[in-house]
Specification:
Adenine-n6-DNA-methyltransferase TaqI, Chain A, domain 2; 3 domains; 5-stranded mixed beta sheet
């Protein structure tokens, strides 16, 4: 095998995995022997491969269990591939960073002789997921085998070029992991914010009220539990202008041009319906239809039906209109009285766990889960002073904007990673030494 010429310009070889790596399939000690288990040796199952980077796993076997089974401890780094498993597990890959053994549903591919960089192999197998599943043997209980992996052809650049490609792609992986962590952190903050703001509220100086335990005189009992004394609990109908309304019936032949349309799917967008989203439908309608079903900023919408209980009465709102839009007949609209309620506050309240439980308890379940207008308008809602509602809504939506920004960044990172994998792992774009 050549290792001469200029490393970052030399044509790539194509080799079989067995020419540059060992494939080790693990085993499972007898579960009937307790002394084989709960030792110090990491023992990996197919479900653990979803971690992608393996620094630890829950499973442990003892030295005795290791000796009396087919499990083989493999030093890092190696590429783990799930040979079988539930759902989409089969053909998922991970990179090990610690000594580890596996059960018989996982293979470890251990490069040898420094010809194959482990992280380059890991990155190159990620986009071959569907191909590997197609290579599986066994019909309805299809699985990969050691033989299939050993005969797998792979592209083999010079080791220095492998290392550089792996570094580029792993740098993106690190940023993706960091962004995921930031999103998770913001989600935790959001959960805490929603709980605190809808039970304690915000004082005029912008701080959370003391808890009831800290200052009981600030709170009173209500139909929704303990709330600040300045707050009210009212039925939803009392904070609306007019009645709830079902939307526009769209005929299939009218779909495609005309007004944009708020469908059920828009209610599952992040809070504050984006009417500029590319998936928002258009429908032809008359001026009379628009007069009846036209949307205004601050309108609240609820799903009328759902295949599952958790989807019923999902609430969202249009906070900003870029052009005239209608709402569809499977959606119920309520128009908040902006003199006494902030629409964003009210919409966020309907997304709280307590309000969701109340709405779901009122749904009717047959072949389809449904909820009626009378069931919705009688739901009790919180009504703090209007300026406090606005402050609460601003605090939560600011957090949500941070989440949306990180999620958009994450989408761009995945797109960038996908493009780079296609270019770098096929040799379409060659990396430079520097």
């Amino acid at each position: 095998m050549r290792r001469d010429s200029v490393p970052f310009e030399h044509p790539w070889d194509e080799v079989l995995v067995c020419e540059v790596a060992n494939v080790i399939v693990g085993g499972t000690p007898s579960t009937a022997e307790p002394s084989f288990w709960d030792g110090e040796i990491r023992w990996m199952a197919s479900g653990d491969v979803h971690q992608h980077h393996i620094f630890d796993v829950p499973g442990r076997i003892s030295e005795k269990g290791h000796r009396w089974s087919n499990a083989v401890v493999v030093e890092p780094q190696a590429v783990a591939m799930a040979l079988a498993g539930q759902g989409k597990t089969r053909a998922t890959v991970a990179l090990t960073h610690v000594p580890i053994c596996t059960n018989q549903s996982v293979a470890l591919i251990k490069p040898r002789d420094n010809q194959l960089d482990p992280e380059f192999l890991y990155q190159s197998l990620i986009p071959r997921y569907e191909e590997m599943r197609a290579r599986s043997a066994g019909g309805g209980r299809a699985g990969l085998t050691k033989s299939i992996l050993e005969r797998l052809p792979i592209q083999l650049p010079h080791p220095l070029e492998q290392r550089r490609i792996a570094e580029i792609l792993s740098t993106l992986d690190d940023e993706i992991e960091l962004t995921n962590a930031l999103i998770a952190k913001h989600q935790q903050i959001k959960t805490g914010l929603i709980h605190d703001l809808f039970t304690r509220g915000i004082t005029s100086d912008g701080h959370l009220r003391p808890t009831r335990e800290q200052d009981p005189d600030l709170y009173k009992e209500s139909a929704l539990g303990w709330i600040p004394k300045e707050w009210e609990v009212r039925p939803f109908r009392s904070v609306l202008t007019g009645n709830l309304q079902n939307g526009y019936f769209k005929k299939p032949e009218l779909v495609g041009t005309g007004y944009k349309l708020v469908n059920v799917s828009e209610l599952y967008q992040p809070f504050g319906i984006d009417t500029d989203h590319p998936n928002v439908e258009r429908v032809a309608a008359t001026s009379a239809d628009f007069h009846k079903f036209g949307v205004q900023e601050g309108d609240l919408f609820f799903t009328r039906s759902s295949l599952v209980l958790s989807g019923i009465a999902q609430c969202n709102t249009v906070l900003k209109l870029m052009e005239p839009i209608l709402f569809e007949c499977h959606v119920i609209r309520g128009k908040p009285d902006k003199n006494i309620v902030n629409p964003a506050f009210l919409g966020l309240y309907f997304q709280t766990p307590g309000a969701r439980r109340e709405l779901m308890s009122r749904a009717k379940q047959t072949t389809m889960t449904t909820i009626s207008q009378p069931d919705i308008v009688s739901v009790p809602v919180l009504r703090p002073p209007l300026d406090e509602q606005t402050s609460i809504a601003q605090r939560i939506t600011s957090n949500m904007m941070s989440i949306h920004a990180e999620e958009a960044h994450l989408t761009k990172l995945f797109q960038q990673k996908h493009g780079l994998m296609h270019d770098l792992l096929t040799g379409k774009v060659r990396v430079k030494e520097n």
